[in-house]
Amino acid sequence: MVEWLTFLKDLITNQALLQVFVGGCTMLLIGWMVTRARGDREALPPPAPQTIADVPLPFAQGPRETVDLMRESRDYLRRVAEDAGKIRECVRIMRDHAQRQTDILDRIEREQALENRSHARGG
């Protein structure tokens, strides 16, 4: 394969007319691709609006709707804060419960260690 490519390179290097022909075909292909891309671009839907001024009027909302949306957002955030408080309380209860269980396990381990030492001395 490499020999074939080397042969083609040497062939094109020695023939200027062939170089001009290949360059011309490449330019025609690139030109066709560019014009084809422009035609495809015209068939695309319009771009999404970039600013609020670009939004069509039926979708734009007035001051009353804006205030309503802000109230809904405030209520939603209040519910989120309440839920976060409940979650925080549940985590605190679980942490306290886990601490009590750990304390119980520590006492059991100490009693077992004392019992094992007393058996080892007495045995």
Number of helices in the DSSP assignment:
3
Distance between the termini: 88 Å
Share of helical residues: over 70%
Please describe the biggest sheet, giving its number of strands, its sense, and whether it closes into a barrel. Answer: none
Give the class from helix and strand content and strand pairing.
mainly alpha
User: Can you tell me the residue ranges where pLDDT is under 50 for at least 5 consecutive residues?
Assistant: none
Computed CA radius of gyration, to the nearest angstrom = 40 Å
- Count of distinct strands: 0
Please state the overall shape, judged from the principal axes of the Cα atoms: elongated
Q: What are the SSEs and their pairings?
A:
Elements (H helix, E strand, L loop, with lengths): L1 H13 L1 H27 L20 H60 L1
